[in-house]
Amino acid sequence: MKRLITLAMLALFSVGLLSGCNTVAGAGKDVQKAGEKVEDTANKCSDGKC
Fold first, then answer.
1. DSSP SS3 for 30
2. Model pTM?
3. What is the pLDDT of residues 1-50, one digit of tens each?
């Protein structure tokens, strides 16, 4: 019985860890796109005429 509980807890932990990785990867992509927009705006405004 202890082995079954241990395996169930390990499975739940693994699922949580894997879904966390997907969330972090998605957040990283969002931050990257926001950074690209800021960089594009900075390049357009580099001559002082925004």
1. helix
2. 0.53
3. 889 899 999 998 888 777 777 777 788 888 999 999 999 888 888 777 76
Residue with tokens 């594009």: 40
The DSSP-derived string for the chain is: -HHHHHHHHHHHHHHHHHHHHHHHHHHHHHHHHHHHHHHHHHHHTTTS--
Phi then psi for 49, rounded to 5 degrees? -115, 80
- Round to whole Å and give the CA distance between 24 and 30: 10
Give CA separation, 6 vs 1, 3, 11, 13, 50, in Å. 9, 5, 9, 11, 60
In the structure encoding, which two tokens stand for residue 48, read together? 């002082």
Pair of tokens at residue 34: 């926001």
